[in-house]
């Protein structure tokens, strides 16, 4: 059964970026205002996530690493409130700990005692009292050390880091009120202030040149009872990229993959886009959760719309309007 468990874990923890995604979500769910992510060698050697969230007492942390334990009430389609825990649903820590060497150091807010827990390949090897600040640090070393086949599947350090960067970037953009820092091999990649809006998060993550080329979208009246807001930033049609990678879409505050949205963005530019060029776009939609169908896979979140045509039109119109009012 140990092997079965390791195989199952390998299926859901595909790569270091999947670990990072789960741990950031936990920190956000724990009400953190600062989250720092530090990884080594594309995350294969080390991942450390530190937050100033609510923390855990010893009982809670012991419970947290068991199978099917969650302190959260979730509804898989609860994209509206943004509190729904996505991904492993009470299994992330358990699953990740089965395929790595994990240390959790945590102290509850206004608790007087911290706890440090060491787990190797799913087995708790040590628990002790620890002096530590309020909040939680989760450290993962030697991911897939006990599943060599899975470890062999990892791509180059650069590719694995790229996946991590994408994940952390999406959370940083969707949560500009949380200060999120990313470090790779002790070098800071970006740091958001946690005090700003989307514009300032874009500046922190992508730099001044991108930030200055962006046009903002804010919808006034939307002719749909299902969509309540479309907001975001899109690039000037001449400031484009050679990949679709920078078309980031969020629904009710969560990053989602939705082809309909990506295509609607591209269509809005019409022939203002050169061949094989893609805009840089960050699109945030607020939409009635009852009108979407969410397919939550541990690795990604896909969304379909009941009224896809209506959504496409609303997005394309919002972007056309933004381009028009920028004189384009
Ligand atoms: P889920 O997030 O679906 O509940 P996890 O395995 O990711 O499942 O986490 C299990 C539990 O551990 C959470 O419900 C939460 O109570 C606790 N936990 C995990 N990470 C943190 C954290 N960074 N701060 C506080 N509590 C945490
Ligand atoms: Mg979780």
In short:
This is DNA mismatch repair protein MutL. The protein is α+β, with helices and mostly antiparallel strands and 328 residues long.
Order of helices and strands: HHEEHHEEEEHHEEHHEEEEEHEEEEH
Number of helices: 10
Bound ions, cofactors and other small molecules, one mention each: adenosine-5'-diphosphate, magnesium ion
The low-confidence runs, each spanning 5 or more residues with pLDDT under 50, are 79-87
- Gyration radius from CA atoms, angstroms: 21 Å
Count of individual beta strands = 17
Feature tags:
single chain, 328 residues, alpha+beta, 8-stranded mixed β-sheet, 5-stranded mixed β-sheet, 10 helices, 17 strands, binds adenosine-5'-diphosphate, binds magnesium ion, DNA mismatch repair protein MutL
Overview of the molecule:
This protein is α+β, with helices and mostly antiparallel strands and 328 residues long. 32% of the residues lie in helices and 30% in strands. The protein contains ten helices and 17 strands. It has an eight-stranded mixed sheet with strand order 5-4-3-6-2-1-7-8. Strands 9-10-15-12-13 form a five-stranded mixed sheet. A hairpin with a 2-residue loop joins strand 7 and strand 8 (187-191). The longest helix has 18 residues, at 157-174. Mean pLDDT is 89; it is low at 79-87. Bound molecules: adenosine-5'-diphosphate and magnesium ion. Residues 22, 26-27, 29-30, 51, 53-56, 64, 69-72, 85, 88-94, 136 line the site of adenosine-5'-diphosphate.
